[in-house]
Amino acid sequence: MLVCGLALWRGRNDERLAAAGNLASWAISLVVFKAYSADTQWYVMAVDVALLALYVWLGLRSRRFWPLFAAAFALLIVVTHLAHALDTGVSGWAYLTAALIWSYLALFAIGYGAWTAPYYDAETTDPADAPGATLR
C-alpha cells in the first residue's frame, strides 16, 4: 500500500497504472486464492499473467527501464507457478514464498520508478522530442 501511495504521490501515468494494476491483481488474487491448498493456484496464475501483460506493455512503451524489471519479476512469478505445476514435489511453502519474494521485488521496481519520476522528467523533457520516442 505504501508503494502504491508513493506512485500516486510522485509517480507519473506509467507508475500510477502499474500501481493500480498491482492493487487490482492483489484484490482479485485474494478472491480466487484457495487457502489450505498445496495445489497449483491456477486462477492466481491467470491474474499474474494479466499483470505480466500490463508490465510488458508498459515496458514496451515507456522511456524508462523500471517497467522491464517489474515485467521480469512478474515473469518469474508466472514461471514459479508453472514450475510448481510441473514438479509437485515442491512444497506449498516454497511455492508461495517464491511468488511473494518476486512480487515484492516488482513492487520495489514500481517504487523506484515512482520515486525517481520527478527527477527523470526534469532531466529529459524536451519539447522537440517526437511523441513516443525512446531514449534507450
Please supply descriptive tags for the structure shown above.
136 residues; mainly alpha; 0% strand; elongated
Structure description:
The protein has 136 residues and is mainly α. The chain has one domain. It is built from 5 helices and no strands. Helix 1 packs parallel to helix 5, helix 2 packs antiparallel against helix 5 and helix 4 packs antiparallel against helix 5. The longest helix is centred in the C-terminal third of the chain and has 33 residues. The protein is elongated and about 50 Å long. The mean pLDDT is 86.
Q: Averaging pLDDT over every residue, what do you get?
A: 86
Please count the helical segments. 5
Report on the biggest sheet: none
Helix/strand class: mainly alpha
Spatial separation of the terminal alpha carbons? 31 Å
Written as H for each helix and E for each strand, in order along the chain, the element string is HHHHH
Concise synopsis of the structure shown:
The protein is mostly helical. The protein has helices spanning 2-10, 13-32, 42-61, 66-86, 92-124. The longest helix is centred in the last third of the chain and has 33 residues, at 92-124.
List the helices and strands and how they pair.
Elements: H1 2-10, H2 13-32, H3 42-61, H4 66-86, H5 92-124
